[in-house]
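Operator note (shift B, R.M.): manual run for DUF2474 domain-containing protein requested after the automated queue skipped it. Running by hand, logging everything below so the morning shift can see what happened. Input copied straight from the record, untouched. If output looks odd, do not overwrite the archive copy; leave it for review.
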Amino acid sequence: MASSTSRRTVSWWRRVGWLVLIWAASVAALAVMALFFRVLMRLAGMSS
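Run finished. Output pasted below as returned.
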C-alpha cells in the first residue's frame, strides 16, 4: 500500500513537471518569435 501511494506522488510530480516544462517552452518560443519580429521590423525601418 505504501508503494502505491509513493507511486502516485511520483506520478503527480512528474505530471506537474511536464506541465511546467511545456509552459516554459511555449513562453520561450513566444519570446523568440517576438524578438524575431522586432528585429525584422527594425530592419524594415519601423523603429519607434
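Quick read of the result: Residues 8 and 14 are 10 Å apart (CA to CA). Residues 1-48 form one domain.
Leaving this for review. - R.M.
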